[in-house]
Design brief:
Two copies of one chain form a homodimer.
Chain A: H1 11-23, H2 37-47, E1 59-63, H3 67-86, H4 90-98, E2 110-116, H5 133-151, E3 157-159, H6 164-170, E4 177-184
Antiparallel strand pairs in A: 1-2, 2-4, 3-4
């Protein structure tokens, strides 16, 4: 796949790329059959092509397959979602309650994406004044995965209504990792 | 450009998309002639196709053209960069000093990208437990701009060695806006 001569991206390609931007989908409904492993592997591999501050590549992808961990994460979502609902005013509460905000019971493929707060790689370059740059790098990896997934006809559900520290605990991950997002596919 | 029938993204398109991921460039050298306004406008428009939490679209793009503001931002970079250099150990200091980390004197086009911390749009949906979701949405808009820019043969320089609050002050922006990044093109 690698080339040494910079490619030219023509108008036809740009037009389909724009269509990809338009048709990328955040989904909350999932088919029961799992995404083929070969496609998943390819998407995770492509995510590593994302930019990162100081080439730190601080993203950490964690597949979540264990049933009891999935249940704990679903319970955490339900707790956080109930609190968010309680914080809505009367007009908005009905609308909020009607939204499907996760698909944690159905989604056959689930993974967490974390950020190593102080990775050795990159030596902290470019992060002194805006330490969030690490998480921002991880977000570009997620977005790369998301766009590439759509080329396989796949949407992705980004679940953000979770207590990030609780998820790190449930998954027994290093304390230096910060949850960036939890995803259903 | 809009279609109502979901498009199919074939293997040929995916192959060029992967090439785009590989050839997206963070640049520190700039040609003296400005990027044509029609291309800039198109890129900013495309950035709005990025995903955002609760469809909040919290990104705010701010062109920086005023010479004294540019000077103030360059001075801020130099101060922050000197501090970052001072924080390097002996082995790394020489390497650090040799890096070109900005192009603030040469880049004909410069803009800040900010995040409205609590935008009305989206009603704060999905942001209660992870408020950083707003900035993460802005990062996907930046990444969309970046990928689309490459189809025009353009790299983008993300300058993160800046005091984010100082940049908000220099640009006289609302205090509820947070600097996500500063860019050279």
């Amino acid at each position: 796949m690698k080339q040494t001569v910079p490619p030219v991206f023509d108008d036809d390609f740009r037009s389909i790329l724009i269509s990809l931007f338009r048709w990328r989908r955040d989904v909350r409904s999932f088919l029961p059959m799992p995404v083929p492993q070969v496609i998943l592997d390819h998407l995770f591999e492509l995510a590593h092509l994302a930019p990162s501050v100081g080439l730190s590549q601080p993203w950490r992808f964690v597949m979540v397959e264990n049933a009891s961990r999935r249940s704990a994460i679903k319970a955490n979502f339900e707790k956080c979602n109930a609190m968010a609902l309680a914080g809505q005013n009367e007009t908005r509460a009905g609308i909020y309650a009607s939204l499907k905000l996760a698909g944690l019971s159905e989604a056959p493929c689930q993974f967490a994406v974390c950020t190593e707060a102080e990775p050795e790689q990159g030596h902290g370059l470019g992060c002194q004044t805006i330490p969030e740059m690490m998480s921002y790098s991880t977000v570009t990896a997620i977005h790369t995965f998301w766009l590439a997934a759509r080329t396989y006809g796949l949407g992705l559900g980004w679940v953000s209504i979770l207590d990030p520290e609780a998820v790190i605990d449930v998954l027994d991950l290093p304390k230096s990792w910060k949850l960036t997002g939890y995803f259903c596919l």
